[in-house]
Amino acid sequence: MTPDATSQPGPTRPTTSTLGALRESGHVHKQVKAEVRDNLLHRLRAGEPRFPGIVGFDETVLPHVERALLAGHDFVLLGERGQGKTRLIRTIAGLLDEWTPVVDGCEINDHPYEPVCARCRNLHAELGDDLPVDWKHRDERYGEKLATPDTSVGDLIGDVDPIKVAEGRTLGDPETVHYGLVPRFNRGIFSVNELPDLAERIQVALLNVLEERDVQIRGYALRLPLDVLLIASANPEDYTNRGRIITPLKDRFGAEVKTHYPLRLSDEISLIAQEAELAATVPTHLLDVVARFTRLVRESTSVDQRSGVSARFAIAAAETVAASALRRAALTGEPDAVARVCDLPSVVDSLLGKVEFEVSEEGRERDVLVHLLRRATAETFRAKLGTADLAGLLHRFEEGETVETGELVSAAELLKRIGPVQGLAKVMERLGVDGGEDPGQAAAAVEFALEGLYLTRRLSKDEVPGRTVYGG
Prior knowledge:
41% of the residues lie in helices and 12% in strands. It is of the alpha/beta class. The chain folds into 2 domains: 240 residues, P-loop containing nucleotide triphosphate hydrolases (Rossmann fold, 3-Layer(aba) Sandwich), CATH 3.40.50; 207 residues, no CATH class.
């Protein structure tokens, strides 16, 4: 927040309750964009996080967003689905002052120093310094609307309120207006998600908001100067498939910022670990597999590149793997649910509908994902255990022995079937697993090593649904 104590509300709700007391407190009124700029500059100078929870954009997207905010621009975030556009927009609300004064009871959050609606101007003229003041938290000053074809001008800007007219007020009285979402977040931040989905005639209603900073409602002689930071999101595909942003509206946005999927594997893994709500323990090497799998699907020529593969794909995959482990623990009586390689195939059927394939791949969709999942597992094995000494594990199969595992084989049962493994502690150490006495983690490490040996053609495997036999 800003270092100016007179313009920054404290961490607790202020108690000032009248206009006169507000003036005496030394409060300084700032426009929303100036407020955001000052708070952003303070965080930049102090080295504090500006957009908490945003992963993988530090060197690419965020500098452009910061420039747009410092310039006082309304802007559009342009990117494919699941790139974190809405999440990023919501973090910008954290750059508002924690508390801000408003005229008590005002529908459009008028500042007590400069009321703009008819009701508040009349109250100010009548009460003067006794004008009642309320306080709004920054969380209440952020609003958003998902653009849909049925969105109306009344939804966004406003319309006549028939209830107020029925109460005896005359048409043309400004107080008969029912304000839409944009005026209701006056002195705040408003986001329109998937802007191209908004009908072109409705987009026209936003022209005055962005340029003249006012609203026009039907035939009312009403000029309502708004103080709002308007941010929109859009999918590039929408420009040709479902709609477009009309040229005059694009021209009124000060900046267009393009987003992207995580560029680095480490960012993909961090995003999964941060966002996934895991019902069981998922070892880091399996999160690595899920991240690599997501990137391979995203880059595959069999997948429609225009629709993209959302980050939600990776998050849902990790949650599905955890759920599979939890199911096994419930059925086998394991005290702790720990995911293993045998839980990975469950993501294919669960997430098949989240991917748009090329027409030429019709009928082969599942095979494509199965192949890419195996590639991801093999790549992770080479990265984690490619140079590890697995002779102790291979020795177990030298005489044609086999080991059966599967989604309903408990960790303790798997370890019992495979017997003592020389060098298992080293394998677990390479996989970053703590606690060599944990049977769930030990079984996860052994099964991952077995699968890696099979994928690198050093061990055979027979597989049927729910049952896998290594060796032989």
